[in-house]
Amino acid sequence: MSPTADHPLRYALVNELHARPFPQLGVPSHAVYLAIKEPADAANRNRAADLAHLNALLMRHGAAQPQPGASHYAGVIGKHALKWESHTEFTTYLAFAPGLSKRPFDPAEAEIFRDDWVAAAPGKRLAAVSIRVEALPENPDDINPQLAEWFVPESLVCAWVLEGAAVIAGDFRIDPTGQMRFAVFVRPGTGPGRVGRIVQRICEIETYRAMSMLGLGRARALTQRLNALDPQLSALVAGMTNEARPAEGTLRELLRVSSELETLAVQNSFRFGATGAYEAIVTQRVEVLRESRFEGKQKFSEFMMRRYDPAMRTVKSAEARLNTMLERAARAGELLRTLVDVERSAQNQLVLESMDKRADLQLRLQHTVEGLSVVAISYYAVSLAGYLAYPVGKALGISKEMMTAGLTPAVILAVWLMVRRIRRGFH
User: Fold this and answer.
1) Whole-angstrom Cα distance, residue 112 to residue 294?
2) Residue 130: what are its φ and ψ, rounded to 5°?
3) CA 371 vs CA 366, 377, 380, 388: distances in Å
4) Dist. CA 125–CA 178, nearest whole Å
């Protein structure tokens, strides 16, 4: 005999789980939900460990096991139908069964997930939800005494959903057994598929709310670090106008601050991005409930506006502040690099002026040397020319002194013209 043949309702539930993403819950019934997440780097976790943990639960009840590498599973364990899913950062277990305990939110209903099995999970418990599904009385006001008994009045959330198909209530408080309680009062005639979707939405709201709140802790730690870096960055920018402070030293300090800001951005970018995505899912899941007010009590959307939205705004504020400081550091770096370039240009200008002065001195020295060279060359040239001209002068009756005096200007002019022509040839 099939393990589900003696439970036709559960058999139908399992078939429905395989055919559609949402379970079908009858009235009355109860559901127990569990979400598990690894504390660090959950997106890159060993998913085989998640599957092994699921198999350990199935083996306890002799249930069929999923295929290796599966990302979702639906089956029967004991009197419960089980739906398991592997998400990007966490895994979820939803177990539900017909019937209700006489004791509201009886801890025994959650024993399907035993404490030792939960403790052996590859991660920590992210969310644990106990949901009680029962029929809505003819007079909806009759549920008020139950709400007052089950939930904390100060944080009670209660609303009609899906055009009056059901009333859902909860207080988002964790009871002594570690469960968060919700009650669903279903109007007669509401189909089991619709009830299943309501339960699924409640579980998703709580899971994604918890996941998005992980960003709040990161935002608070980031804010503390930014509070320390902001004055340093402001002081560096203000010190750029101090001419006595070297720009290159300021640039090194700015690079240190910028490097730390970039590190913070890398460390928090994934979590902040995920927080924004989870927040959008929470908002969407609340909207699709299409809730309306019940007996003047606060709706889910009002609770989120008061208790949840401020936390999300804190995360967005920290992310925006980090991006703003990164932009400020980048602009300051550009200004400092410009200042360093200006200082180096001024230094290069001084070097060029010094080189011009040295070149001018060299040119003057060269001219002086050239003049002395003309005199020295002319002296020896006059002597040589004298030896050549003496016999001619003697024949003409011209003395040696007169011959030398006559040759000197001509020789000097010839030497000067020769030196000038050589210099022009070099240029």
Assistant:
1) 33
2) -115, 125
3) 9, 10, 15, 26
4) 10
Confirm whether pTM is higher than 0.85: no
Q: Can you tell me the distance from the alpha carbon of 23 to that of 13, in angstroms, rounded to the nearest whole number?
A: 7
Q: What is the pLDDT of residues 363-378, one digit of tens each?
A: 777 767 666 676 777 7
Name the amino acid, one letter, at 226. Answer: L
Q: Angle 388-393-395 (CA atoms, 0-180°, nearest 5)? A: 115
Please write down the HEC assignment for all residues of the chain. CCCCCCCHHHHHHHHHHHHCCCCCCCCCEEEEEEEEECCCCHHHCCHHHHHHHHHHHHHHCCCCCCCCCCCEEEEEECCEEEEEEECCCEEEEEEEEECCCCCCCCHHHHHHCCHHHHHCCCCEEEEEEEEEEEECCCCHHHHHHHHHHHCCHHHCEEEEECCCCEEEEEEEEECCCCCEEEEEEECCCCCHHHHHHHHHHHHHHHHHHHHHHHHHHHHHHHHHHHHHHHHHHHHHHHHHHCCCCCHHHHHHHHHHHHHHHHHHHHHHHHHHHHHHHHHHHHHHHHHHCCCEECCCCCCHHHHHHHHHHHHHHHHHHHHHHHHHHHHHHHHHHHHHHHHHHHHHHHHHHHHHHHHHHHHHHHHHHHHHHHHHHHHHHHHHHHHHHHHHHHHHHHHHCCCHHHHHHHHHHHHHHHHHHHHHHHHHHHC
* C-beta of residue 98 within 8 angstroms of C-beta of residue 29: yes
- Evaluate if residue 310 carries a pLDDT over 90: yes
Q: Do 275 and 315 form a contact (C-beta atoms < 8 A)?
A: yes
CA angle 408, 414, 415 (to 5 degrees): 90
Nearest in space to 170 (alpha carbons), one of 186, 187, 158, 162: 158
Q: Which residues are 168's β-sheet partners?
A: 159, 184
Mean pLDDT across the stretch 350-360? 80
Please, which pLDDT band fits residue 2 given cuts at 50, 70 and 90? very low
Q: How far apart are CA 286 and CA 119, in angstroms?
A: 31
The rounded distance, in Å, linking the Cα atoms of 181 and 158 is 12
Tell me the β-bridge partners of 95.
32, 82
Two structure tokens written together for 378: 């002319």
Q: Please give the domain boundaries of the chain with CATH numbers for all domains.
A: 8-135 (3.60.90), 212-352 (1.20.58), 355-426 (no CATH)
- Computed over its alpha carbons, how large is the radius of gyration of the chain? 46
Kindly tell me the sign of the dihedral angle through the C-alpha atoms of 359, 363, 368, 372.
positive
